[in-house]
Amino acid sequence: MTGAVRREQAEFSMDYVNLPEPPVTTAAGGGDEGNHPAPGTKLLRLVGVSFGLLCLLQAAVNVSLRLTLCEFYTVFQQRYIQQGWVRFRSSVYYISDARNTWQQSRRYCLRQGADLVIINTKEEQDFTRQFHRFTWLGLYYESKTKKWIWVDRTPLNESFWGPGEPNGFEGKIENCVEIRFFEMDNSWNDIPCGDQNYWICEKEVAP
């Protein structure tokens, strides 16, 4: 009797030892993988945070540069305006109170970091006429190319010649241009570059 009990206990013990271990499951079901982030998750988070910080830094730099440029242009414009320059759109202009040849007038403008005025639009043409003076423009006739060009070497596309101009009056070599008929929309006149005239300097100060 005792031997039978012992055999039963031994069989029971062996059966218990040989039972397989139950799998470890999670609430999501699927082993213990849910306890660890997917491969690359930490790297993606780091990249995202770094990109966000770079965006913030770029925005701060842009604001700082904009404020600096605005301050620069304000000081720049005030300095020129205090010296008798006039602001019109994206340029400042200086209208002389003395007369000189075309070449000497241009040299004066260049010393100021400017050049003789270049007229690109009808609005700018109207602006330059309002001073009611015979003034040099930055337009001249280049004998080599036989074309009228501006001092920045751009060709003459839109012109405002007075009636019958340019004409080389009385056979003169008239290779420079002035505003003469300032009461008219078309006010330009060609005259010899060695004549004496007032002049207009132009300098761009903003886009």
What is the name of the CATH superfamily of the domain at 99-201? Mannose-Binding Protein A, subunit A
Give me the strand/helix succession.
HHEEHEHEEEEE
Number of distinct helices: 4
What is the mean predicted local confidence, pLDDT? 78
Distance between the termini: 111 Å
β-sheet strand percentage: 15-25%
CATH level-two architecture of the domain at 99-201? Roll
Q: For this structure, what is the CATH class of the domain at 99-201?
A: Alpha Beta
CATH overall fold name of the domain at 99-201: Mannose-Binding Protein A, Chain A
The description of the largest β-sheet is: 8 strands, mixed
* Helical proportion, percent range: 25-40%
Low-pLDDT ranges? 1-19, 24-33, 67-73
Keywords: Disulfide bond, Lectin
Domain C-type lectin: 88-202
GO molecular function, one term: carbohydrate binding
Protein name: C-type lectin domain-containing protein
What attributes does this structure have?
207 residues; alpha+beta; Mannose-Binding Protein A, Chain A; eight-stranded mixed sheet; 18% strand; disordered N terminus; lectin; C-type_lectin-like/link_sf; disulfide bond; carbohydrate binding; C-type lectin domain-containing protein
